[in-house]
Amino acid sequence: MMDDDERKAIEALGWQTINTYGYTHPTGWTIGNYCLNGTWESILWDGKLVHARLASPLAAARCHADLIRNATALD
Fold first, then answer.
1. DSSP secondary structure, 29-55, as one string
2. Which H/E stretch holds residue 6?
3. What is the edge-to-edge ordering of all strands in the sheet holding 16-19?
4. Which pLDDT band, with edges at 50, 70 and 90, does 20 fall under?
């Protein structure tokens, strides 16, 4: 699924590896890796809404960082 460098990059963005299929962030957000119709995708959600469906957990972690950065810039 994912190599060690990708896992380290995700963890450097503040994510904790829960298992092969999931990550959690102190902000309460989650990345889940799912195989849907034979295709793997990473789903970024905040516990209420799905915010993005991406090709990899690292892409989802980067998307989260962008979303949080943009939201805090508006404050």
1. -EEEEEEETTEEEEEEE-SS-EEEEES
2. helix 4-12
3. 16-19, 22-24, 30-36, 39-45, 50-54
4. confident
Instruction: For residue 15, give the nearest of 70, 52, 57, 73 by alpha carbon.
Output: 57
DSSP state of 27: T
Q: What is the spatial distance between Cα 53 and Cα 60, in angstroms, rounded to a whole number?
A: 8
User: What residues make up the domain containing 53?
Assistant: 4-74
The number of distinct structural domains making up the chain is 1
Displacement of CA 34 from its chain's centroid (Å): 12
Is the four-CA dihedral 55, 59, 61, 50 of positive or negative sign? Answer: negative
Q: What is the pTM of this model?
A: 0.89
pLDDT in tens, 28-70: 999 999 998 999 999 999 999 999 999 999 999 999 999 999 8
Encoded tokens for 34: 């799912």
